[in-house]
Structure formats: structure tokens, C-alpha cells
Amino acid sequence: MFKKILIANRGEIACRVIKTARKMGIQTVAIYSDADKNALHVRMADEAVHIGPPPANQSYIVIDKVMDAIRQTGAEAVHPGYGFLSENSKFAEALAAEGVAFIGPPVGAIEAMGDKITSKKLAQEAGVSTVPGYMGLIEDADDAVKISNEVGYPVMIKASAGGGGKGMRIAWSDQEAREGFQSSKNEAANSFGDDRIFIEKFVTQPRHIEIQVLADSHGNTIYLNERECSIQRRNQKVVEEAPSPFLDEETRQAMGKQSCDLAAAVGYTSAGTVEFIVDGDRNFYFLEMNTRLQVEHPVTELITGIDLVEQMIRVAYGEKLAMKQSDIGINGWAMESRLYAEDPYRNFLPSIGRLTRYRPPEEIEGRVRNDTGVYEGGEISMYYDPMIAKLCTWGETRAKAIEEMRVALDSFEVEGIGHNLPFLSAVYDHEKFTLGNMTTAFIEEEYPDGFDGVSLDEASLRRIGAACSAMHRVAEIRRTRVSGRMNNHERKVGRDWVVMVDGQTWPVTIDADPEGSTVTFDSGEALRVSSDWTPGDPLAVLDVDGTPLVLKVGKVTGGFRVRSRGTDTVVRVLSPRQAELTALMPEKVAPDTSKLLLCPMPGLIVKVDVTVGDEVQEGQALCTVEAMKMENILRAEKKGVVSKVHASAGESLAVDDIILEFE
User: Is 275 a catalytic residue?
Assistant: First the structure.
């Protein structure tokens, strides 16, 4: 077996590969840019080599720099992770020339399947049903508009060397095709060093289901079931699961066989994924093949018990697969949630900064897993993908896996940056998701105006109100004890309180005993609350009438800021007199920013499309901001005239910095 491997990647996937290599007794080498000198993958590896400035096109995807690191350390093999150089045939060729094993497929398979255009042609030749589109290269924006009209809107504009949602745009009109072509081209060049673009028909209302394949160099190819990846935002997967709640065994076998036949036809070895879109009648159409490990591979590992990274390493070393197709079953159900550094309340725009608190839920072997590349106190950089972690749960059934995920998400503490934990919680409570009736249009259809939090029903609010009442009583006891004003501190804490939650107000009575508290509402409803929470703890794990409740808790005047199951609200617990006076307080009016264009995220101004005096129309592009390898076009919300321009191309702005003013 290899004695030392280099991981040509960063973040959570580098950490994940290191864990398996360590288990196999293999030493590891990390590479890092200036921005990653204190990164977790650098700390975990046995050795680390600096390879350049923060931008990936000056460090992680510069083949010569990676090859220098290999030579310096004497690594015998390289695992590329995903993204960066993972599907770059020139990199695989450079490794072969150096006599270094590539922990991935052969060069020919990368060229045949890694290139989206070539792979679609080969799939068609192999008799695989494919989505209509234009397989040639697109020369310019005018050409993109022409081809889009020929294919028929809506169309998907995609980077040939793309992946992970980078270099992808959906266009519904000539204007969007023109803009999407240029943005996709720019993102593809920055992320992959390859700006080739192609166009295909965008099939509405599809499911995105992919088959995991595994092949050795001895002619053995198997599939490890499917993953459902339909919950997507901006073409990037957010929630994945295995197996799919939609497939039947007949369709699964047909998709699996077709995937294996395609892999065998191109001499594929290692782990790879064949992606399909599946319609409501379970007709499936080949999209592409990813010649690498997928981000969502942990859910496959959880239902099969197979370590895909270990198998990749063994195949690269020349070993035969130790299992055959009949050995592959489906054990239970697994969910994966991608935790991103993005603000769901600002249309999911990237968020950067320091993780002032980062406490994932406790990992439980085979049941709760968190693949991550960050740590508390670390920085989230603007230069790379905004994914912080992949939280995975397993259950005997889909319903149990979902419930495990709900509790795990509520237990995940992240502070210092914007993040999508509230949105993830909302997805797992959504009826369409729990019933398995989602498509790739789920987020677009269910949150057309963006995400602004979750509105809980009255029963859920009462549970939170009861919990906070009991917690407030504990805090009051602590306060009177610390003050030392009376030896019998219990007499200083009253029984009667008023709870205010999300616009609801309820008088309550709290009766406590050594085992917990009984909170009785004015309606007569009584809820039993027990917990070992102590004041100051940011996480409260409670039992309310026999049902678990996990709250993220922050102290505010007169109560708590509470986050749970996608909601973020302030709960006030006041004395009757305090509640009476609070009702008389005027509400604070937010400042008027309707005549300003504010920067919605920390980022770089790529270009400004307007000047002072320009009259703009609703929907018109005003400027482009780049952050975390993604270009974001800011558009006019209404008709207006530009009165001031505060920013120019090349400037780096913070959140809410003013870009433009309007008359």
C-alpha cells in the first residue's frame, strides 16, 4: 500500500481524505495557500506545503506548484478531492509522467467523461437517453443567444469543465442568455481554468438523481445505489439523501446497469457518479458523469457501509474490488445537509468573517456525522466555496433519518457569520419534503421571494414559551442567589409571569419542583418542562411534555433570543407590571434605504454598468459583485435615475456599503 499521499485540495474534503488515510496507516501531505495557512486540513496532515496566494488560479489549480509539492515531499499518490484539479486530464498526465499514482480514473476516462460535451456525445452513441442541447462550443454571447433560440427557452448554460454549480446559469430570454453566457464563462475560467461553455434544454420540474459507481482496473464495475439531490439552489445541491424516495427497484436497477455500462465503455476505474434527471413517470435522462468523488458521498457510505475514499485508494494501488454487485444492499436511510457561509435572510448571499463560535453536534458512529474543514476561531475566506460542513444523519427509516437531522441542526452552534442553518431546518419540516414530493424547483417554488424565517404554529410557540418561562425562572433564581439579598432566594422569584412570543402574549404560572417545572397558561393548558440548562449556556436541550426540544439561546433584556427549527425570535418573560408597561412602548422605525443600492455581501466590484444621470428600468443590471468564486448581478428593483456612484470596478466592499444612490 502507498506510504504517503498528497491531497490536492483544501477544506472539508481534504480533512475527510486525511481521516481515511490515517485509518489505513498512510501518511498525508496537505497543500495550502496564504489564506489557508492556519486551516484545519493543514493542522491534520503529517506534512504541509505552501503553494501560493489565495486565489485558486494562483495556487490550488496551478499544476506546476502542486507537482513541486509532490517532489518536495516524496508523495507516491495524489487524491484530488472534488473541484480544482479533480477532473483535469493534464494534471493526471503530469502525475503519470512523474510516476505518481492518481487516486482517480485514467486520463482517457477523464477526457471522455469529465468533459460535459464529450460525455454527452459518448452517452448518445451508447444508446443512453440524453437531454436535448447543443454539444458544440459557444463562441460568443451572440452565438449563445442564437443557439438558445434554436434549443428553445428555458436553457441551461453550463461550463464544459464545470461542477458544484459553478459556471451554470438558467436563461429564459435573450438578455439572460447573453448575460448568463458571460458570467458562466468568467466563473469557469476562475474556478477551473477552462472557459468553454455549452447549452442544453432546461427540463422543468425534474428530479436530480445520481448513481454512484465503483470500478477497478481488473474489469469489475458495480453501482452503490442512488442519491436524491433535488433540493438545489442556484443549481447547487443543498440537501441530499440516499436512497431516493421516488425510485422503485426496477428503475434503480436500470439506472445502475446503464451507469455501469457507460463507465465500462470508457475504461473507467475508481469512484464516479453518473447523473440523471428523472421525470414524474420515472423516465431518466443522462446529464453528465462526474469523474471524481462527489460532495454528497457520505450518504452512500452510511447506507452501504463502504468507505469510498478507501476504495479509491485501493483501486489506485491496483487492488481488485473486494465486493460484487450482489453484496451491495440498502441499510436504512441517510440525509446530508450542506452548511454554507451564506445569509438566507439576504437571498443566500455569501458571508465571510471569523467563526466566533463553532460547535457541531456530537458525532455518533453510523448515525450522526459531520464532515468539516473549519474550527472555532477560524476565518471563512472570500476566495473559496462557502461550504462550511456537511452534516449527515442515518435512521432505520426516512422519517427517523429526518428526525435525527432536525435535532442535529438545532444542536449545531454557529456564530460570527451568516449561515443557512435556519433554512435547512425549514426544509426538513416542509410537507413536500417530508412526503418526498420535491423536484429541483422546490426552493424556487416554495420560497419565490426568498427566505425570511419560519412561522411556527401556536402549539410550537407555546412549547417554546413554556421552555423559556422555565429557563427564565432558573435565571432569576441564579440572579437572586448571586445578589445575596436573601438567604431564602426562592421567595424572591414569583410564580406569575407574562410570556411574549412572536406577537403572541400569554399569562403563565410556573410551579417548580426538583424534577422540573409545570408551566400553566391562562387557558388552563399545562406543559411539563425539564432540562439541565444553566444560565449562560448557548444551547438548551429540554423535554417539553415528553418531546425533545433543542433551543439556541442568547440573553436579551427581559428574555431570550431563541433559534429553533428555522425560526429566530425573541421571547420575553416579564412580570405582569413589566408586560403592562412594555405594551406602551413605541416601535422603532427602520431607516429608509429605498433610494440606495447597498452591497449585499462582502465582495469585489467586477463592474458598474451605470453612471450618474442614467435612467434605469426595473430589472436592469446595475453592477456585478464577485464573492466566493460566484458573480452576482445586482439589478434595479424599480425605475429611477442614478444620482451618485460610490464604488468602481476593483473595489472591495463590506456588507451594506453604498454602491449607488438614486434621485
Answer: no
Residue whose C-alpha cell is 486551516: 39
Q: The pTM is what?
A: 0.81
CA 213/CA 321 separation, integer angstroms: 12
AA identity, residue 93: E
Contacts of range 614-618, beta carbons closer than 8 Å, 24 or more positions apart = 614/641, 614/642, 615/639, 615/640, 615/641, 615/642, 616/640, 616/641, 616/642
C-alpha cell at 622: 446595475
The C-alpha cell that represents 216 in the structure block: 477497478
**In which residue ranges of the chain is pLDDT below 50?**
486, 488-490
Q: Write the CA distances from 539 to 24, 54, 190, 510, 598, integer angstroms.
A: 36, 35, 40, 22, 34
Distances (CA, A) of 359 to 337, 356, 377, 532, 556: 16, 10, 11, 19, 21
d(CA 109, CA 119) in angstroms, rounded, equals 10
Full set of structural domains in the chain with CATH: 4-103 (3.40.50.20), 132-201 (3.30.1490.20), 204-331 (3.30.470.20), 332-448 (3.30.470.20), 458-582 (3.30.700.30), 596-662 (2.40.50.100)
Residue tagged active-site, from 240, 288, 301, 626: 288
CA torsion, ordered 173, 174, 179, 181, to nearest 10 deg: 100
Distance (Å, whole) CA 36 – CA 458 = 46
For residue 629, what pLDDT is reported? 66
Radius of gyration of the chain (CA): 27
CB 500 within 8 A of CB 574: yes
- Secondary structure letter of residue 342 according to DSSP: E
The one-character DSSP state at 130 is B
Q: 557: which DSSP letter?
A: T
Question: Per-residue pLDDT tens for 521-541?
Answer: 999 999 999 999 999 999 999
Please tell me the predicted confidence (pLDDT) of residue 400: 97
Q: Residue 4 is inside which H or E element, if any?
A: strand 4-7
Secondary structure element (H or E) that encloses residue 89, with its range: helix 89-98
Q: Extract the C-alpha cell encoding 476.
A: 432569576
